């Protein structure tokens, strides 16, 4: 993860807008705040007045309810230097068209939605509006996120760098070509769910082997969290960490041999391929 102080110093003066503050956009916003960005420089839109009050109380941001104010999104972006679009994919292009006239010409528009291409966003905004397509994940909220970003055709290096640094305050960021975004989705965008599923399976197996449910869940959760933290250390290598806890012909080796015999690597490849194919289907459906 990048040094938070560096990220904060280079982006501290930016005004940010979050349009639609659900789980993903909310995770990004909370991660950026946790890295040191002043909440007073953030405006977020939510649907209902009660959610606006709750969000403002929790985070200190300026929260506006779209049910109260039909111009809430326009108000939110008027002074924004970076705008994060967090509505459902089917609504992204309509939102781009809604805010196009209110954006500052140099404001970067960042999509966190699967399936919406850079070209589609650029066509829905004014000519020359900087655009970034991103694929973040929810561990941003705990400072251990992973994000892939792809630049639009009109964004300059300095503006892209600002977007990257905002994300770096709460995770690892990789700039990739747009045709690699689906692979990012498969590895890290959807990846936390794979790990949570593994934790569920470990706990369920523990129960079947005689542990009570609470103990099994706590042990599985702590194991997954601890292993992840070890992987986050500088220079960590998953294969070496695995070897470090695997004695020849020991208990761990027996479990890993069972995984290999069951075709774990092939299962993961098949799952991530399914993720990529679904992402491409969404792109085709949303572009038609």
UniProtKB/TrEMBL annotation:
Catalytic activity: L-proline + NADP(+) = (S)-1-pyrroline-5-carboxylate + NADPH + 2 H(+); L-proline + NAD(+) = (S)-1-pyrroline-5-carboxylate + NADH + 2 H(+)
Domain Pyrroline-5-carboxylate reductase catalytic N-terminal: 16-115
Enzyme's top EC category: oxidoreductase
EC nos: 1.5.1.2
Pathway recorded for this protein: Amino-acid biosynthesis; L-proline biosynthesis; L-proline from L-glutamate 5-semialdehyde: step 1/1
Record-linked Gene3D superfamilies: NAD(P)-binding Rossmann-like Domain, ProC C-terminal domain-like
Limits of the Pyrroline-5-carboxylate reductase dimerisation domain: 178-282
Subcellular location: Cytoplasm
Similarity remark: Belongs to the pyrroline-5-carboxylate reductase family.
PANTHER family membership: PYRROLINE-5-CARBOXYLATE REDUCTASE, PYRROLINE-5-CARBOXYLATE REDUCTASE 3
The protein's name: Pyrroline-5-carboxylate reductase
Organism annotation: Zhihengliuella salsuginis
Organism placement in taxonomy: Bacteria, Bacillati, Actinomycetota, Actinomycetes, Micrococcales
């Amino acid at each position: 993860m990048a040094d938070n102080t560096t990220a904060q110093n280079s982006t501290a003066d930016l005004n940010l807008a979050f349009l639609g503050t659900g789980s993903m956009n909310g995770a990004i916003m909370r991660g950026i705040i946790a890295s040191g960005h002043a909440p007073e420089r953030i405006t977020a839109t939510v649907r209902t007045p009660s959610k606006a009050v709750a969000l403002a109380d929790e985070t200190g941001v300026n929260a506006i309810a779209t049910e109260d104010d039909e111009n809430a999104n326009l108000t939110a972006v008027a002074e924004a230097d970076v705008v994060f679009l967090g509505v459902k994919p089917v609504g992204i292009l309509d939102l781009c068209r809604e805010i196009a006239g209110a954006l500052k010409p140099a404001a970067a528009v960042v999509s966190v939605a699967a399936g919406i291409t850079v070209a589609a966003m650029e066509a829905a905004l004014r000519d020359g509006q900087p655009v970034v397509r991103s694929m973040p994940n929810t561990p941003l909220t705990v400072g251990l996120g992973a994000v892939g970003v792809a630049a639009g055709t009109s964004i300059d290096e300095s503006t892209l760098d600002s977007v990257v640094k905002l994300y770096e305050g709460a995770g690892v960021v990789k700039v990739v070509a747009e045709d690699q975004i689906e692979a990012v989705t498969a590895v890290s965008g959807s990846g936390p769910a794979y790990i949570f599923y593994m934790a569920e399976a470990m706990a369920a197996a523990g129960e079947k082997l005689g542990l009570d449910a609470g103990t099994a869940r706590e042990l599985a959760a702590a194991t997954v969290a601890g292993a992840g933290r070890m992987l986050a250390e500088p220079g960590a290598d998953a294969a070496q960490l695995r070897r470090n806890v695997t004695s020849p012909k020991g208990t761990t080796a027996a479990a890993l041999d069972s995984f290999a015999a069951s075709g774990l690597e092939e299962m993961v490849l098949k799952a991530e391929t399914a993720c990529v194919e679904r992402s491409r289907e969404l792109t085709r459906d949303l572009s038609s």
